[in-house]
Amino acid sequence: MFETSKLTEWLLSHGISQMVLELLIAMCIVATIVSIARYLVGSKTYGIFAPILLAIAYSYTGLKYGLAITLVVILTSLLSYSVLKKIRMHYITRIATNYTILSITLILFFVLIDQFGLGLENMSNIPPLAFISIATLSDFFIKQFVKKSLPSSLMSLFGTVVVAIVGWFVISREIISDYALNNLWIVPLLTAINILLGLFKGLRFKDYLRFRFTSREDGNK
Amino acid sequence: MGINKVISINKEVLGLNRRNQEYVRPYNSSSSKAIADNKILTKRILRKELIQTPEVYKLIRTKKQLEFLDWNSLPKSFVIKPNKGTGGNGIIVFYGKEKGKLSWIRPNGTTMSQRDIILHIENILEGRFSMGSKNDIAIIEERIKTDSLLKQYSYKGVPDIRVICFNQVPIMAMLRLPTKLSNGTANLHSGAICTGIDIETGITTYSMHMNGAVFQSDTYELIDSTLDLTQNLQLSGIQIPYWNEMLEIALKCQRASGLGYIGVDIAIDAEKGPVVFEINARPGLGIQVANQAGLRWRLEKVKDIEIKGLKHGIRVAKNLFGGEIEENIEAISGRKVVNIIEKIYIFDKNTNITKISNFKDIKKEQVKAFMDTGVLTSRIDSKLANRIGFINTHKEFTKLNIPKRFETFKEAQDYIDRNEVEACKIDGIKRLAKIVEEGVIKVRPVFDIPIKISDKIRMTEFVSTENVDSIYPITIGRSDLSGYLIDTSNTF
User: Fold this and answer.
1) Per residue in B361-396, pLDDT tens?
2) Domain limits of chain A?
3) Cβ pair B240, B161 in contact under 8 A
4) Testing the interface with A: which of B218, B220, B295, B360 to mutate, by most A Cβ within 10 A?
5) pLDDT tens by residue, A17-39
6) In chain A, what residues touch B114 (CB-CB under 8 Å)?
7) Cα-flanking dihedrals φ and ψ of residue B340, to 5°?
């Protein structure tokens, strides 16, 4: 679509595969989206790693399959952790048990789709690594659930998934990925945007909602 | 939300971005933050300043120590908390011990066996509740027995008072009241009530409660009374005990920890009085909602002030940020509070108050006025009246040769009835009035003079007096005090 730039051509001919280059650019784009979501909007996510991982995984699974797997992972984690909470056991073993239950559920999920379709017939074509990447969301979800609370973890989950969907939307547009691949100046531009965001002192969108009550004009005293 | 509202919020409110960039990073060094993030270290540092903190019964650093813990040496009620925990996570309170059993009773009535407690402590040691999930220390400490006044407003747990200080000045304060929803904790995100406190008087003002719905978290609703007690009580107007002492404690915590921007959590123990729970290097911003006022403006106001000591810091805070309760009274009663001796502005004789668009450019004088409900019409010292343009009026008035004294009010009134029309021909005289001055009944001229009192510019009738003994050049009388409440505790 776009003419291949000389820099891109040079990189591709010097040991970097196109897929790696595309992934690295996607990582920069999603990382910037996470920054914007955090410092301009004020959305909570499970750090920066989870939304990047999820957005890239969705770009491999497709949004429909990605969200279906996410739903299974979260519901299973929530259910298994709630049951395991009642058993007196050490923290790490509880998380490990949660993973084993999650694996069993995912296998059953595959079988179920094979039998009944459920509109997800192409599930078996999904790359396993993308599948595992979504499954690691369980760790982030449970950790926050344990450390803080279920509402807090659900809030971060919601933020993470929304940011990942936005990220997926941006990086899966062929026009964007093609343009970025052949205009690598975008990477330093994203770096500059992140530095500027890092220096931003203004209110986040969420702050306006949160402090809408704070309206008395005591600044005029 | 209109554009004006957005601009006003932006100007007044401190957001997370600015808090971190402008206050936490530049004013809180890593070593100071390390003190705040470590409860054991905090206790040690505060003890040096003779600040009370909950007494530590045991410190458990390893599983071996846990194994050899003498459970019988623990009192019936105690608290277990992680040394480096955040947001109240991992804290368990025990109210008592089950008779004849090794199990303890929690605030919600459930019990925890020794085995359960051991497991909880093991989780603390493994770092489950700590920053960065690093190995931690479990603290077993004294349970605060809440002061009876605040106890009636909270559901089981311990209410606490958070004071935010910056540059050795207390900036804002709030009371956090545990509710049934918050399960007895004073954590706002769990559903505790936050109530603003007037920094000057220590009296509670507005109360807020975080929205229960998950996706509305971080948004609040205004409430008037407690939520889930058998008898819900009005939340505004509570006088926080030990108020001045608490402000001093907060400032001492700031000095001891070296944190430039600090949040100090203080509880009131029924026997010990104020006890510092913890200090916070990154205090949350919900305090602005509780007070319905922004932190940004307040922080900027004190940024460059040189504070000479604790008392000076408190005085600055009270003068700059006090008066919330007065505005609250105004909101409830529709009346404004004025001090018994209030600073007012008096404008020149011919000032047209309808055309005062830029207050700064108008010729005016700031004077101390005495609020006196014992006189009807306000009074002005003739020397002050001369300064603002009534010198010729006085000269003309003297030419009228009015008797210096009258024997009775009737005699004075008869004189006024006969001569008022003539006197009113003099520029500036509105009418004549009979007054008692230094025990003598006199007839004096009355002027219309614009003044600014309590943010309001108004035309006011003044009787010109010649009382040389009066300390205040202006006395505001009853006829100009309707709509005001007089605070006799404050003078300037």
Assistant:
1) 778 888 989 888 878 889 999 999 999 999 999 999
2) 6-220
3) yes
4) B218
5) 888 999 999 999 999 999 999 99
6) none
7) -65, -35
| Cβ partners under 8 Å of residue B221, min gap 6 | B208, B209, B211
Shortest distance, CA B226 to any CA of chain A (angstroms): 19
Query: CA–CA separation, B465 vs B443, rounded Å?
Result: 10
Mind telling me how many Å the CA of B312 is from chain A's nearest CA?
A: 20
Residue B442, classed as helix, strand or coil, is strand
Give B47-104 pLDDT, tens digit per residue. 988 999 999 999 999 999 998 888 888 888 899 999 988 777 888 888 888 887 888 8
Residue found by looking up tokens 């969108």 in the block: A205
Contacts for B196 with CB less than 8 Å, ≥ 6 apart: B172, B173, B174, B204, B205, B206, B207, B287, B290, B291, B292, B293, B324
| Chain mean position to CA B230 | 29
Q: Is B363 at the interface with chain A, CB within 8 A?
A: no
Contact B371, B489 (CB under 8 A): no
Is the CB of A93 inside 8 Å of chain B's CB atoms?
no
Instruction: Find the CB nearest B17 among A154, A158, A204.
Output: A204
Chain B partners of A204 at a C-beta cutoff of 8 Å? 15-17
CA distance A33 to A52: 9
Other residues' Cβ atoms within 10 Å of the Cβ of residue B456: 10
- The domain ranges of chain B are 11-52+147-321, 56-142, 336-487
Closest partner CB to A213 (pick from B119, B122, B222): B222
Close Cβ partners of B131 (under 8 Å, ≥ 6 residues apart): B37, B84, B85, B86
Strands B484-491, B336-347: pairing kind: parallel
Q: Which of B393, B362, B361 is closest to B380 using CA atoms?
A: B393
How close is the nearest chain A Cα to the Cα of B201, in Å? 17
**Going residue by residue through chain B (492 aa), what tens digit of pLDDT does each one get?**
677 778 878 888 999 999 999 999 999 999 999 999 999 999 999 998 899 999 999 999 999 999 888 888 888 889 999 998 877 788 888 888 888 788 888 877 888 888 889 989 998 998 888 876 678 899 999 998 888 888 888 888 889 999 999 999 999 999 999 888 777 777 777 788 999 999 988 998 888 887 655 455 567 778 878 887 777 888 888 899 999 999 999 999 999 999 999 999 999 999 899 999 999 999 988 899 888 888 998 999 898 888 888 999 999 998 888 876 655 555 555 567 788 888 898 988 888 777 666 666 778 888 989 888 878 889 999 999 999 999 999 999 998 888 988 888 888 888 998 988 889 999 999 999 988 888 888 999 999 998 988 778 888 999 999 876 778 899 998 888 877 777 766 554
- Looking at residue B437, the DSSP 8-state letter turns out to be E
Measured distance CA(B456)–CA(B298) in Å, rounded: 23
Interface contact flag, B10 A203, Cβ < 8 Å? yes
Beta bridge partners of B462: B378, B447
Q: How far apart are CA B93 and CA B176, in angstroms?
A: 17
Provide CATH code, domain B11-52+147-321: 3.30.470.20
Classify B336-487 by CATH class. Answer: mainly beta
Beta-carbon contacts of residue B88 (< 8 Å; ≥ 6 apart): B185, B186, B187, B190
